[in-house]
């Protein structure tokens, strides 16, 4: 059932805990409710606010925020070794991972403890520890605000890239994701080659689904702050891709610098956290905002910070990396 909120306080609806207000917020469950909501046409300003885990409000939002709340997970079918599962947009992503592990389905265990809703997963193409949402997403269901109809987009047309998708570009502000369809497997498919994952999994007795999930959770909890305790949006910056010649030059000067393959031909990916750390910004604090002491990719609100103060610190971090390495790092967080 649709619930409407006027002049709503957003402090508890964004993981940065920034105190701003929205003129109107509507929680919805079904496509029919979306049709009714947009029946008279879309307002001048509107956007989807799911879990609020990848967004930073820098001012009051004078438009409409649309929030999915339906939380159904349904097993569709099993064919050719793949188990198809339909997930409503309002499902907490980590609840979905736990559901998959309990049902002994492989494919998303490396994405454990990523905050946010399932409907946001294809937008950001969330990823961690060598895996991304695009590895399992097969289709995305959405409501088209312009036509008033439901559409389904196959993964091949979602234009997935590193923290990128068509939903951040051509379809931004035009559709509301209502569900995703993912493909999982009953056949063990462990991916342990990233960071400390293999060591942590072996310490728990080997590569079972539960051990991998527990290992990922332990690693994330050791490095990342709990949003319930310290306001943050997870990784604030993307790992930059640079030309191979630039990467080789930098690694010649800093041999310990991590390098990763890039999805872009002729490029390599650098570790933004390492760059920020070596630029002297890890643990840096300015008033109520700071760079997290254990993970330099994360900006935190120590209490009472504004979105503008967070942005000001982000610009300072970017400048420090640029000055030391000549590399630009982009923000990953959606800024409003």
Task: Explain what the structure shows.
The structure is a single chain. The chain has helices at residues 31-37, 93-102, 121-124, 197-203, 209-223, 244-253, 272-278, 307-325; strands at residues 3-9, 21-28, 46-48, 55-56, 61-68, 73-79, 82-88, 127-128, 131-132, 137-144, 149-154, 175-185, 231-235, 241-243, 259-261, 267-270, 285-286, 289-291, 298-301, 334-335. It is α+β, with helices and mostly antiparallel strands and 336 residues long. The chain folds into 3 domains: 3-68, 2-Layer Sandwich (Uridine Diphospho-n-acetylenolpyruvylglucosamine Reductase, domain 2); 73-199, Uridine Diphospho-n-acetylenolpyruvylglucosamine Reductase, domain 3; 231-335, Uridine Diphospho-n-acetylenolpyruvylglucosamine Reductase, domain 1. The chain has a 5-stranded antiparallel β-sheet with strand order 6-7-12-10-11. A 4-stranded mixed β-sheet has the order 1-2-5-3. A 4-stranded antiparallel β-sheet has the order 13-19-18-17, covered by helices on one side. The model has no long low-confidence stretch (mean pLDDT 94).
């Amino acid at each position: 059932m649709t619930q409407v909120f006027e002049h709503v306080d957003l402090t508890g609806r964004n993981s940065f805990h920034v105190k701003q207000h929205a003129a109107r917020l509507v929680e919805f469950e079904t496509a029919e409710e979306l049709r009714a909501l947009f029946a008279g046409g879309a307002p001048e300003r509107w956007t989807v606010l799911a879990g609020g885990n990848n967004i930073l409000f820098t001012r009051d939002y004078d438009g409409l925020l649309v929030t999915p709340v339906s939380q159904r997970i349904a097993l569709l079918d099993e064919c050719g070794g793949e188990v198809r599962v339909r997930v409503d947009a309002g499902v907490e992503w980590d609840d979905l991972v736990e559901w998959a592990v309990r049902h002994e389905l492989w494919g998303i265990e490396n994405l454990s403890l990523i905050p946010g809703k399932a409907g946001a997963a294809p937008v950001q193409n969330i990823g961690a520890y060598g895996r991304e949402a695009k590895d399992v997403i097969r289709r995305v269901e959405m409501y088209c605000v312009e036509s008033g109809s439901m559409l389904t987009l196959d993964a091949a047309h979602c234009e997935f890239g590193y923290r990128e998708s068509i939903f951040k570009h051509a379809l931004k502000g035009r559709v509301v994701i209502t569900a995703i369809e993912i493909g999982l497997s009953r056949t063990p498919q462990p991916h342990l080659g990233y960071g400390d994952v293999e060591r942590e999994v072996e310490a728990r007795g080997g590569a079972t689904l539960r051990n991998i999930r527990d290992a990922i959770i332990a690693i994330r909890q050791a490095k990342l702050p709990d949003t319930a305790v310290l306001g943050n949006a997870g990784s604030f910056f993307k790992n930059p891709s640079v030309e191979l010649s630039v990467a080789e030059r930098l690694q010649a000067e800093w041999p310990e610098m991590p390098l990763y393959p890039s999805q872009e031909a002729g490029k390599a990916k650098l570790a933004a956290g390492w760059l920020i750390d070596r630029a002297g910004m890890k643990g840096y604090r300015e008033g109520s905002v700071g760079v997290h002491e254990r993970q330099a990719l994360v900006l935190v609100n120590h209490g009472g910070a504004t979105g503008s103060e967070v942005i000001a610190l982000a610009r300072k971090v970017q400048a420090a990396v640029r000055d030391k390495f000549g590399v630009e790092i982009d923000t990953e967080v959606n800024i409003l």
